[in-house]
Amino acid sequence: MPDRPTHSRTHHRGAAGDWPGQPGDSPYPGPESGDATVEELEAQLETAKGLAAEHLAALQRTAADFANYKRRTAEDREREFGLASESLLRKILAVADDFDRALEAMPEELKGVGWIEGIVLLDRKLRALLESEGVTPIESIGRNFDPREHEAIANVPATGRPDGEVVAEIQRGYRVRDRVLRPALVAVAGGSAAGGIPHSN
Fold first, then answer.
1. Is residue 152 included in any domain, yes or no?
2. From the centroid of its chain, how far is CA 139?
3. Domain limits at 179?
4. In the 8-state DSSP scheme, what is residue 18?
5. In this predicted structure, what is the pLDDT of residue 3?
6. Which residues pair with 180 in a beta bridge?
7. What does the buried/exposed string (b/e) look like for 44-58 if buried means 16 or more CB atoms within 10 Å of the residue's CB?
């Protein structure tokens, strides 16, 4: 019986990396390729950080601009409202002046009469309304003339009072909160008839 040819079971290695488990068969990049990817990711991360910082700065500027715009708008509205409110208050003061004159000129014998007491009550309500809006009278008599609060329309000589002291109030002045709404019209003490009237400006 003829002998069967024996075949050598030797395996031939191919090119490097033919063996399973060799770098050529791995789905993952090698060390050099991995190092390059990390560098690229780090570069991309730095770029993203720079862009994020720029966007954040832009948003902060926009937010600051918007806040300034809101503040200016609110101030403009408040100023316009304040001007309109002050104009209305000055008109109400004209009514208050009429009450002042009417009550000052009231005959003594009418005091205590019912309808007169009604007028007095209306005057009190008007004063309470003004006060609720922050309107208060300016104290004048006995004080030194202040051009910010007083308007001198007469000079009174030989009063025995120091020059420049307010000795009479012709029309009451008022403040609204911390501003002069209307200066008081006053008469001021002077050393002589030629002393002159203090200037209000």
1. yes
2. 30
3. 135-201
4. -
5. 52
6. 175
7. eeeeeeeeeeeeeee
pLDDT reported for residue 29: 47
Query: Would you say 149 and 178 are in contact if contact means Cβ atoms under 8 Å apart?
Result: no
- 50: in domain: no
3-class secondary structure, 138: coil
Is it the case that residue 199 has pLDDT exceeding 90?
no
Bridge partners, residue 187, by sequence: 154, 168
CA angle 124, 127, 186 (to 5 degrees): 115
Greater model confidence, 32 or 81:
81
Question: Could you report the per-residue pLDDT of 160-175, keeping only the tens digit for each?
Answer: 889 999 999 999 999 9
CATH number at residue 145: 2.30.22.10
Closest CA to 176 of 42, 99, 111, 86: 86
Residue 196 lies in a domain: yes
Angle at 173 between CA 169 and CA 179, to 5 degrees: 150
Domain count, the chain: 1
CA nearest neighbour of 180 among 131, 132, 137, 126? 137
Question: pLDDT digit string (tens) for 90-111?
Answer: 999 999 999 988 888 888 888 7
Please indicate, yes or no, if residue 49 is contained in any of the structural domains: no
Residue 14 has pLDDT above 90, yes or no: no
